[in-house]
């Protein structure tokens, strides 16, 4: 397996992606785009790109903040994430730049690309789907679900999977209901898996913040992993 930094641009912002791929690529491979949480394109996102490369895909961890910024302080995380949440067209443009970059990588089958996002990244991949981007499917893992204020009339082409913790304080039951109504109204192929007794960031072994409602749940994590793999098999194999 090989890994490398891969720079790309969103207007004048230099974004630094991380790509992982098998050493020998005889035929074009499916690719998985990884959208990081609010902390930036850190080790977790890169590790996920490596994991999918080990499964035979091409993994690409994108960069929503530019210069591969990674921050630990909550205030700094919020200052980086909030402008994108408030300007969803900019958010969409930035993640579409990552998709375009990945689709042009040698060895990528650009008809078989999926995007997986975590927390803030979950919202990013949903907005990518909402844009009508030519992507096979997207997965939001304990991600934010709310639609942009101005709903687009563009048809969603991607299949959508949401993996959600019932006790997630950042995504209330009414937000799940509204998302389901939105997807149904737009005639999307969508599904939500809800895990009981499960909070936000349930796939992150380092999540342990009672104040924010972030907790790792190993049982829900394993179930989500199996569901995610089955979804990718459906997208890429049929």
Structure in words:
- The chain has 238 residues and is an alpha/beta fold.
- The chain has a single domain, classed as Rossmann fold (3-Layer(aba) Sandwich).
- Helices cover 35% and strands 26% of the residues.
- It has six helices and ten strands, in the order βββαβααβαββαβββα.
- The chain has helices at residues 43-54, 74-86, 88-103, 120-130, 173-185, 218-236; strands at residues 2-10, 13-21, 29-35, 58-61, 108-118, 137-141, 159-165, 190-195, 208-209, 214-215.
- Strands 1-2-4-3-5-6-7-8 form an eight-stranded mixed beta sheet, sandwiched between helices. The protein has a two-stranded antiparallel ribbon with strand order 9-10.
- α3 (88-103) crosses α4.
- The longest helix is centred in the last third of the chain and has 19 residues, at 218-236.
- The radius of gyration is 16 Å and the shape is globular.
- The two termini are 26 Å apart.
- 44% of the residues are buried.
- The mean pLDDT is 97.
